[in-house]
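Protocol check, entry for the methods section draft. Step 1: assemble the input record (protein sequence plus ligand SMILES). Step 2: submit for complex structure prediction. Step 3: store the structure tokens unaltered in the notebook. Ligand used here: calcium ion. Step 1 record:
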Amino acid sequence: MTSEPGCCGPRRGGAARADPGNPRIRAQGSSNGMILIPEGTYLMGSDEGYQADREGPVREVHTGAFRIDPFTVTNARFASFVKATGYVTEAERFGWSFVFHLLLSPRQLRTADRAVSAAPWWLRIDGASWRRPEGPGSSIAARQRHPVVHVSWADANAYCAWAGKRLPTEVEWERAARGGLEQKRYPWGDELLPKGRHRCNIWQGTFPTVNTEDDGYLGTAPVNAFPPNAYGLYNTSGNVWEWCADAFDVGTRVIRGGSYLCHESYCNRYRVAARSGNTPDSSTGHMGFRCARDA
Ligand SMILES: [Ca+2]
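Step 3, stored output:
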């Protein structure tokens, strides 16, 4: 098993960008549809995974009561935010974002920049953004209920501020994702395929070249695909990485949950204790977010 730095989240790499110039955002929204997680303790982390990820040691942690969204933020919801505020995302201001190679056309593959030497399956695509997830000519028209992607940590925070919400802390995220189960590998238990059924959108086949799509999806799945965990949260394992509020390391923020690119042989970070990080200005086609709120 290998773990390359570009596997979970290729990084933008510090290029300068224009002044944001985004409007002041006025909070609105309500906690309708959010899930109340009561005050309590749970066993966080695991003793497996990659040492450098610092999943362990397993320890008891406490959270106050909080609310969390059952779904990651969809393209439709993000479009409402942009329409109401005129917000311009970091990917749009930089003028490009990272897209996975199998989602691109032969022409794009010939001409685009393979920007991450350790992970050549990530291409820097000019014009890729939440509106055009695979660059010019692509669209979210048929993906209204899919997670918004190509959003940076700052973009996620701007949306949350507008919605009157916030990003979950990592401790909150894992508590909610575990769904009340103690020290299970996945939000539904220890078996990846209970009764032979797929429970999340990850990778089947040979990474990064052949995806058999046994779970039904090559890229993102709708946010309500697959059954929820016992708390009612959907897709906390796989589909898209989810930004959390906390720092992961110096200069990076936590991402949790893994994505449609995770595979047992390569990057098994779709486990509920798994964690990674990315720089807050980075955006990719496999990172999104869900919102939380104080109870
Ligand atoms: Ca899949």
